[in-house]
Structures are given as structure tokens and as C-alpha cells.
Amino acid sequence: MTDSTQSNGTSAPYRDPSVYAEFSKKWPSLPQDETQWVKRAQEVADILALDAVQRDLENKSPRAEVQLLKYAGLLKILGPQKYGGGEQPWSVGYKVIRKVAEADGSIGMLLGYHLLWSTTATVVGTPEQADRYQKLVIENNYFIGGAVNPRDSDLKIQSSGNNIVFNGSKYFNTGGVVSDLTVLEGVLEGTDDHIFAFVETRQPGIVFAHNWQNIGLRLTESGGVKIDNVQVPWKDALGWNSELKKPDPEVLTIPFASLLLPTIQLVFSNFYLGIALGAIDYATKYTNKNTRAWPYGGDNKEKATDEFYILSTYGNFHAHLRAAITLADRSGEQVSAIYAKYAGETATRAKLTARERGELAEWVASTKVVTTDTGLRVTSGVFEVTGAKATGLKVGLDRFYRDIRTHTLHDPVAYKNRELGRFQLLDEIPEPTWYT
């Protein structure tokens, strides 16, 4: 099979998941600690790397690659052990995202977004909802997509008896085409209140546009989606009182409820970093094997690997990437510490202060600035040390730059610089927004 038929009859080409059937029993149990989880992610990355260039050129829906993530257990890394999850902290989850992104930025991004969406009920839901959805997702090994682009206000919600009804569209969604569940978000009619809810993806009211034709992250299925009369029981409106049909103030008006934003911003930074690390590794192999020394410089060398400017460039990239890794890891530890201290019962969540949340956001913002700057510089700069032939499509070095350039436009990094400037100069923590 080579296409995926939607409820409206349209279809999108995809790779048959059976291409990874040999791995269905390769990993009979989940890893037990950070070292084992990173090793598992490396094994997946090694598989993805074998044909990453060809898959990028084919631009097919990544059904097979999502199935590979399922086989490897990577979708379960954050889930509670009582339901069959790995119960690892976000700091480990971020390293796994990064490792997968080294081989394939698209699949690293999909894994990162899934882990964020799988945390949604933990952050904005009631403790009962959080437990219920963790059980559902982990026990079924579900992959989650999301139609939650906050710049689009086209998704409306109406109350209808015991249900809420979603109607409208989103210009972007991530991974929905290949997902089991989709997170929807919209504004309740007559209010300014937002509602998040999980829905089954495969239903007539969810119709994907199959229009993701961008230069990078081509395998993320980030195109548009139309939502037509999708009904959700009020009891599944995350963080809402289903009887009063109002937001639960003990859940949604506290700093903890805004943790999704710094959490996903650090997801971004880690797959940026993974893409950049993948680029320098890929370029290193190419330079060692294919790049020729420049014969007209006046200080001629026999091998490209003896060229001063090539050694200097690789050395500088190496140093900046090491610094970015250290910062990303430190920020991941900050995220993990916040969740370890405050996730759980409502009373525990309420203890997180605005200052603590704000300082976490600035750790994350710092990482976003550094990984964006470094990632763009490395993925474009590697061409200077590989040579003209490295621009060939069959080489595939360009995919790293295209991937990181595409997503670093998600929200302007200039605003992160300004935010950090106010923190440094005025000791102001940022107000929580859809991007902070």
C-alpha cells in the first residue's frame, strides 16, 4: 500500500509500515535508565539514517517511521510505569528527541511534539483527567498529533448539551495525518476561554489538506486540517468543570497551567541541536572521504583535512555545539525539577510561583537563542568545508539546513533576545503567552 485514504476520499502517499516489520520484536522491553534510553534512541537513529536522504526526497507521510518509534517504545518514555511507561524525566526525553533528530529532523520533531501532547492533560487537565489520559495513551502505545497553532483563531467551540463541538480549521497541524489521537484547541463561543481536548483522529469530521510542501521538515505532516462538527464530552474538556461548564480555577489560573509553553520551546531547541549535530557528523564523513584540498591558496596541502580553514571551521563549530549541548542539558534539568516538584495533585501544582515559572522560561529562552544561532550557522557553514559537490541532492547535506531553517521561523527568536534583555536589565520575568 502506498497511500492513506482519508474520510473525504483524498489520499496522501506514504511508506508502508511493513518496511520496519523486522523490528517489531527487536525491543521486547523498555529501557530502564537514561543510558539505556539514549542507546535505544541511537539504535532508532541508525535505522533512520540508512535512507534519510531518499525519504526526504520522496516526501511521503511517515506512517512507517511512526511505527518504528512505537516498536522501539520511544513514545512511552515519559509515561508512568504503572501503565507501562518509562517514567523518565523530561531531561531524558529531550536527549532522546535530540538523538533521533541527528538522523532525521522530521522524525525527531514528531517525537518531540508527541511527548509534549502526551503531557497536555498533566499540565492543563485535572488530576483525574491526567491519570485517565496517561493510561489511554501508554497502554495503547498511541501517537499523538496536534492542531493547536495559536496564531489561527479559526477553530470555534460551541456547547451542545453534554458535549462541546469543534468547528473550523487550522493552517498548520503537526503529525495529525499519522496520529491515533489529535489534540484540538479552540475558544468557547461567547467567551475568551480556551479548551484543549483529545479526539480520535480517524473520524469523518477531521479532514487533512495534505498540503505540507515546505522546504524542510518535509516528513512532519504539518499541513492544514479542517474540523467539522467534532464532538467531545464536556467531561473531557481539559481543566474544566463539566457540571458548571466553566474553567476550574484551581487548575487553569495558576502558573503551573502555563508550563506547556517552556516545555515545548525546549523541545524545539533539542531537535534544532540534534539537526545541527547530525549536520556536522554528516559533513565530517563527507570531508574525510570526498573533499579535495584547494590548490591555489599559497600554502597548499595534499589533503583537505590538513587545510587550516577547514580545521579551524570544524573546531569552532565543535566548540559552539558543545556549549549548546551543555546549556540544553542544564535547561532540561530545570524543566525536570519543576515537574518533579509540582506535578501531581491540585494543591501541589498551586505551589509553583510565577517567579519560578518565569526563571524557567528564561533558561529555555536562552537555549532557544543559542541553538537557533548555532544551528543555523553550522548547517549553512558546513558547505564551506565540504565543497561544491556537497550541494548535490543525492548527497543530502542540504536537508539539515532546510529543516532547521524551516522551524526556527516558528516564532521570531528576536523576541527571545528582547525578553532576555528585560530579564537581565530590569529583572523582569516574562508574562506567560502562547510562545513564552
Automatic annotation (TrEMBL):
A single MF term (Gene Ontology): flavin adenine dinucleotide binding
Entry protein name: Thermophilic desulfurizing enzyme family protein
Q: What residues does the Acyl-CoA dehydrogenase C-terminal domain cover?
A: 266-410
Keyword Flavoprotein, does the record have it?
A: yes
Please give the organism: Periconia digitata
Q: Pinpoint the Acyl-CoA dehydrogenase/oxidase N-terminal domain residues.
A: 42-134
Q: Name one Pfam family in it.
A: Acyl-CoA_dh_2
> Where does the source fall among the domains of life?
Eukaryota
Q: Which keywords does this chain's UniProt record carry?
A: Flavoprotein, Oxidoreductase
Q: Name one GO biological process term.
A: L-leucine catabolic process
Q: Does the keyword S-adenosyl-L-methionine apply?
A: no
